[in-house]
């Protein structure tokens, strides 16, 4: 279970989630992409209109009776690639989850019903550190942190890594966190310096692949 996470918007989270999911499916893996962002950009990127979905991931997270079945919500996109869509209703899920016991484990419970059904589950997280993001961190085994190059690229990364450390204290095994350099323009000095700082800050836990701005 891979969480694509960064509290900063516009750094390539959804683009990473959608392309990673599609490429894994092309490599003959069974993949579920979960859109955890109320903006529903991953849902839209796969050509699904959120307004036309009868139910969304919101219905699974808000369900307290076990009456909502994931199979009724999952959209099959192509061979080996499924989507749990989002819609604007997900923006109302946080206050509901805050009232729940073990509020940070709701998504993990939902995903446990898919045990053995998928090789990879990709979580496209919202651009903030709230209850939905905490649910993603407790549910995932790995975290990919897309980082654009620029003056403010590393701003907030320390806080995100501290949040991951806090979550790791409650887990039987730590989240494997790696940064992914995105929107990289190798022609600019600031981009090259940003990447050097990222490599130092993450102590080498940065993917060798660098996603160019083009």
Report on this structure:
This protein is an alpha/beta fold and 214 residues long. Helix content is 34%, strand content 16%. It has helices at 13-26, 41-45, 57-62, 93-98, 106-112, 131-139, 157-169, 189-201; strands at residues 2-4, 31-35, 75-78, 81-84, 120-124, 142-148, 176-182. It has a 7-stranded mixed β-sheet, sandwiched between helices. A hairpin with a 2-residue loop joins strand 3 (75-78) and strand 4 (81-84). Helix 5 packs across helix 6. The protein starts with a strand and ends in a 13-residue tail after the last helix. The mean pLDDT is 91.
How do you describe this structure in short?
This protein is an alpha/beta fold. It has helices at residues 13-26, 41-45, 57-62, 93-98, 106-112, 131-139, 157-169, 189-201; strands at residues 2-4, 31-35, 75-78, 81-84, 120-124, 142-148, 176-182.
Structural key phrases:
214 residues; alpha/beta; 8 helices; 7 strands; globular
Q: Could you tell me the number of beta strands?
A: 7
**Separation of the first and last Cα atoms:** 28 Å
Low-confidence blocks of residues: none
Question: Average pLDDT value?
Answer: 91
Number of helices: 8
Residue share in β-strands:
15-25%
SSE blueprint and pairings:
Layout: E1 2-4, H1 13-26, E2 31-35, H2 41-45, H3 57-62, E3 75-78, E4 81-84, H4 93-98, H5 106-112, E5 120-124, H6 131-139, E6 142-148, H7 157-169, E7 176-182, H8 189-201
Parallel strand pairs: 1-5, 1-6, 2-4, 2-5, 6-7
Antiparallel strand pairs: 3-4
Helix pairs in contact: 5-6
């Amino acid at each position: 279970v891979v969480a694509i996470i960064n509290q900063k918007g516009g750094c390539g989270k959804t683009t990473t989630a959608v392309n990673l999911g599609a490429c894994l499916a092309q490599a003959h893996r069974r993949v579920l992409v979960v859109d955890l962002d109320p903006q529903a950009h991953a849902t839209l990127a796969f050509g699904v209109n959120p307004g036309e979905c009868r139910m969304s991931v919101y219905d699974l997270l808000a369900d307290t009776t076990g009456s909502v079945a994931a199979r009724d919500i999952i959209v099959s996109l192509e061979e080996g690639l499924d989507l749990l869509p989002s819609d604007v209703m997900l923006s109302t899920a946080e206050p509901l989850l805050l009232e729940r016991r073990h509020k940070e484990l709701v998504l993990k419970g939902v995903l446990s019903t898919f045990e053995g059904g998928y090789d990879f589950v990709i979580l496209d997280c919202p651009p903030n550190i709230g209850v939905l993001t905490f649910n993603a961190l407790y549910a995932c085994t790995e975290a990919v942190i897309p980082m654009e190059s620029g003056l403010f690229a590393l701003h907030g990364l320390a806080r995100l890594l501290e949040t991951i450390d806090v979550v790791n204290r409650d887990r039987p095994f730590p989240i494997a966190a790696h940064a992914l350099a995105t929107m990289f323009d190798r022609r600019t000095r600031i981009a090259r310096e940003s990447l050097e700082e990222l490599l130092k800050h993450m102590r080498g836990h940065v993917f060798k692949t660098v996603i160019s701005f083009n």
